[in-house]
Amino acid sequence: MTDKTANTMWGGRFAAGPDAIMEAINASIGFDQRMAAQDIAGSRAHAAMLGAVGIISPNDADTIREGLLTVLSEIEGGTFQFSTALEDIHMNVEARLKEVIGEPAGRLHTGRSRNDQVATDFKLWVRDQFDAAESGLLALIDALLAQAEAGADWVMPGFTHLQTAQPVTWGHHMMAYVEMLGRDLSRVRDARARMNESPLGAAALAGTSFPIDRDMTAQALGFDRPAANSLDAVSDRDFALEFLGVASICAMHLSRFAEELVIWSSAQFRFVTLSDRFSTGSSIMPQKKNPDAAELIRAKVGRIMGANVGLMMVMKGLPLAYSKDMQEDKEQVFDAADNWMLALAAMEGMVRDMTANRESLAAAAGAGFSTATDLADWLVRVLGMPFRDAHHVTGSLVAMAEAKGCDLPDLTLSDMQSVHGDITNAVFDVLGVQNSVNSRMSYGGTAPAQVRAQAERWRELLK
Ligand code: ARG
Q1: pLDDT beyond 70 at 2
Q2: For a FRET experiment, which of 56, 182, 285, 427 has its CA 20 to 30 Å from that of 89?
Q3: Is 43 designated active site?
Q4: To test ligand 1's pocket by mutation, which of 109, 114, 115 has the most ligand atoms within 8 angstroms of CB?
Q5: Residue 5 gets which letter from DSSP?
Q6: Shared-domain flag, residues 225 and 243
Q7: Contacts of 10 (CB under 8 A, 6+ apart)
Q8: What CATH number did the domain enclosing 92 receive?
Q9: How far is the CA of 256 from the centre of ligand 1 (A)?
């Protein structure tokens, strides 16, 4: 037991202050000070409303609003003394406001509670992060589009099972990530629109008997409307969970791309060269250039998804309305947001800086009998064979090339005819990788013309 006096903000019924351990487990000021600007914006909107509807005098409202700006500048200037005894950002700000403006500060908390206050602050903070994610995604998509446009017709191997499958174009591969990140972008926008309801004025849980104007505060804070149920408003953290869900899926996409960059930049592949700006060296092996940024991006999904699962576990089983468990919502979201933004920015930088090695890509594109499907399709199209039979004939030709240690285009016409007598010289037209990709003109296919059309569509969409 400490001999400290009871909390000045809520300690009316308490004879003694908290144990030091109680203070340590209870306080959130160590991390929720990140929401200072949002807390002050919320309080300024609330004070303006209290003044406008006559719950407090217009004079007091003005004094409070001015005082809050002073507090904000102290926090931003780094001179503010945060106190653990005052628990959280809400009470730290209000206590300091009292020191700055005196008695009117005590009227600010009329018709509200820390429960709607923290929900409002956190929503405003997460909303800003949705906006930051949108910018980060747009920048990364732009970098990918630039790569796709430059290399719309560069051939490379396409893989399934990480085994050579069919030739594709560099631009097509880049555009695959544009599609993924485009879905992330639309998830960000969806979730942001859904979360944009104001909890402020829900008060502790039941609303308030004061004649507050919730539309006014909602509007002042850029919300579309006030949340319609006060119990839900103070106990909802769906917006944070959706944020983490969207972030997790996006981080998974970034992780897949990062993995490809790690593979592609290896000496065995040499598909891309990452810039020095996004690589590191080894302290012992002088030849090394390591794709650390890609590796770290590959890993970020772990902590971001961890935050998603973590907050879900915090929320599950909580009875309505507010419970202190919910204070555990912030650190994980802060960490996930920081790392998501960092991963987006690092990936954008890497993509802008990286060089695709056209020769290595082209050399690899033809390896592994990558045009075998083109050969089978030719047998179907020109000789009228059922695809299953064509598949079988092509398989025999692949086996023959493998035995001879050559690629499919290196077989002679008589080699071909020894497997099927009707094959003509025209077959060699489809065995080249450039012809192979050019022929894949189906909508969404890898043909350069399709890739350019898709890149144009995205440029148009993002205008
Ligand atoms: N620091 C608290 C949190 O982050 C603020 C809300 C506290 N409300 C309460 N009734 N104790 O959730």
Answers
A1: no
A2: 56
A3: no
A4: 114
A5: P
A6: yes
A7: none
A8: 1.10.275.10
A9: 38
Own/partner pairs, 5-9, CB within 8 angstroms, 24+ separation: 7/85, 7/86, 7/87, 8/95, 9/86, 9/87, 9/91, 9/94, 9/95
- Domain of residue 458, CATH code: 1.10.40.30
46 is catalytic: no
Question: Are the CB atoms for 252 and 343 separated by under 8 Å?
Answer: no
Span from the CA of 76 to the centroid of ligand 1 (angstroms): 23
Query: How many angstroms does the Cα of residue 113 sit away from the middle of ligand 1?
Result: 9
Q: Which of 71, 88, 107 is the last residue of a domain?
A: 107
Residues at CB less than 6 angstroms from ligand 1: 28, 32, 88, 114-115, 118, 322, 324, 326-327
Alpha helices by DSSP H, listed for 384-412, are: 387-404
In a domain, 11, yes or no: no
Integer angstrom CA distances of residue 276 from 261, 288, 297, 350: 14, 11, 17, 10
Instruction: Output the pTM of the full model.
Output: 0.93
39 and 188 in a common domain = no
Instruction: Kindly report, residue by residue over 10-44, the tens digit of the pLDDT.
Output: 888 888 888 889 999 999 999 999 999 999 999 99
- pLDDT tens string 148-199: 999 999 999 999 999 999 999 999 999 999 999 999 999 999 999 999 999 9
Q: How many CA atoms lie within 13 A of 463 on its CB side?
A: 6
Cα-based distances in Å from 305 to 133, 183, 339, 455? 16, 18, 11, 30
Torsion of the alpha carbons at 8, 10, 13 and 18, rounded to the nearest 10: -70
- Domain of 89 in residue numbering reads as 20-107
Tell which one of 87, 88, 89 to mutate to probe ligand 1, the residue whose CB is within 8 A of the most ligand atoms.
88
Reply yes or no: is the peptide bond before residue 321 cis, omega within 30 of 0: yes
pLDDT in tens, 355-409: 999 999 999 998 889 889 999 999 999 999 999 999 999 999 999 999 999 999 9
* Catalytic residue (choose from 43, 282, 283, 391): 282
